[in-house]
Specification:
With about 260 residues, the chain is an alpha/beta fold. The protein has two domains: about 200 residues, 2-enoyl-CoA Hydratase, Chain A, domain 1 (Alpha-Beta Complex); about 45 residues. Helices cover about 45% and strands about 15% of the residues. Strands 1-2-3-5-7-10 form a six-stranded mixed beta sheet, sandwiched between helices. A four-stranded mixed beta sheet has the order 4-6-8-9.
């Protein structure tokens, strides 16, 4: 990966990570995946970053999936197998980030790129976005994105997309519950900016605890989930930010978060 293929900037508590390969529809190379993992780790460790926006450069694609032509097996079978696991590890990195993530989507959002968007907490898409899992038409199966896809769709809907390879437009994606917000192309940047600013303005300690609890209980039965969530409320009320939030509410003033 060249330095220009992955852009990173931080402003006002929001980090923006851009896959900058528009000529390849922002396809994922080994280097880009490794670079994404490195930047996500940087976001994790930076207390000044409170929200991450992930996007693709240009107007034609968020990410069209793996760069099939650039992921040749010249490194050897075992090394390539290990490398393929990096996308799964990137999904796990995003899951364990402890900070809210937003996928900003225009154009093609396919295969591994589709999984990458769904691995983010929220997906904001423009009306020109197209989603799908075309792997079956390449003699492949979308193994790695099964988890983010099934977290976002009913199983029968997810399986139908994987088995047919058909593409869906943004309106259908929104109707299926894949999107957090669907907006006009001209409103994409302002919507993402406002949403990211809102998320960045919240208590980072409460955001981390609450977000982690959401994913930890997502697949659990109700009784088991409640057993886990009950003590977390007591943990939460012990935070300095909880006392600050309640005090600010009673005093009719904006809270000042410390993250403690």
């Amino acid at each position: 990966m060249t330095e220009e293929e992955l852009l990173y900037e931080v402003a006002d508590g929001v980090a923006t990570l851009t896959i900058n390969r528009p000529e390849r529809h922002n396809a994922l190379s080994w280097g880009v995946i490794a670079g994404l993992r490195a930047r996500v780790a940087e976001v994790h460790d930076d207390p000044d970053v409170r929200c991450l926006v992930l996007t693709g450069a240009g107007e034609r694609a968020f990410c069209a999936g793996a760069d099939l032509g650039g992921m040749a097996a010249d490194a050897g079978y075992a090394a390539v197998h290990q490398g393929r696991g990096e996308l799964a590890r990137l999904f796990q990195d995003l899951d364990g980030l402890g900070k809210p993530t937003i996928a900003r989507v225009r154009g093609y959002c396919l295969a591994g790129g589709f999984g990458l968007a769904l691995a983010c907490d929220l997906v904001v898409a423009a009306e020109d976005a197209t989603f799908g899992t075309p792997e079956i038409d390449r003699g492949l199966w979308p193994f790695m994105i099964t988890v983010p896809l099934c977290r976002s769709l009913p199983p029968k809907k997810a399986l139908e997309l994987m088995m047919t390879g058909r593409r869906i437009d943004a309106v259908e994606a929104d109707a299926l519950g894949l999107l957090s917000r669907l907006v006009a192309v001209g409103e994409l940047d302002s919507t993402v900016g406002e949403l990211a600013a809102t998320l960045a303005s919240k208590s980072p300690s409460v955001m981390r605890l609450g977000r982690d609890s959401f994913y930890a209980t997502l697949g659990l039965q109700a009784a088991e989930a409640l057993r886990m969530l009950h003590p977390l409320l007591t943990v939460n009320t012990g935070f300095e930010d909880a006392a600050e939030g309640i005090g600010a509410f009673l005093e009719k003033r904006p809270p000042v978060w410390t993250g403690r």
